[in-house]
Amino acid sequence: MTVQALPLFPLHATLLPGAALGLRVFEARYLDLVRECGRQGSTFGVCPILEGEEVGAPATPAAWGVEARIEDFDMGADGVLQLKLRGARRFHVLKTHVRDNGLVIGEVEWRLPDDDGELQPEHALLAVLLEHILEQAGSELAGAGQAQMDQAAWVGWRLAELLPLEEEQRLLLLQEDDPCRRLDHLLAWIPEFDPPPETDL
Prior knowledge:
The protein is an alpha+beta fold.
């Protein structure tokens, strides 16, 4: 697996492959990072924070994260730069160092991309749940084709994005290379609802 240096943006949120994330950028170190990405066409990594805060002293990032690609940007009414990010490749952080400006740089190992394996019968309920969520939310993904709904990896990441999971749960999914194992975790986390009482007609 390929290893390279990657600037990191620790957040109290988890970016997932294929998911969108809005980000307000105002600290000098991150404004410099965005300019560098614009000039070089490069990317940066988003990692959940283990210790610390998003602003001020460099936070301690988790050892797992996702590459962030800048899809769009705008300047808010308050003068703060607003980015729309899209999650791409997963990575494992092997070690980090901090630049003089406080930017954390990770030596990261890229994880292999997910295969296009089909959803297994034991996970069919998750595809039904995802379709229901997309329809109810009016999501831009509501028109997803059947080919995507049949892919174990795609269904898993979209559920991880849309379900009200704890960030620790999303981080656990990021560490899992097997799409079917991710779906096993999601199945275990879905609360069991009691069926409605029968009504005499």
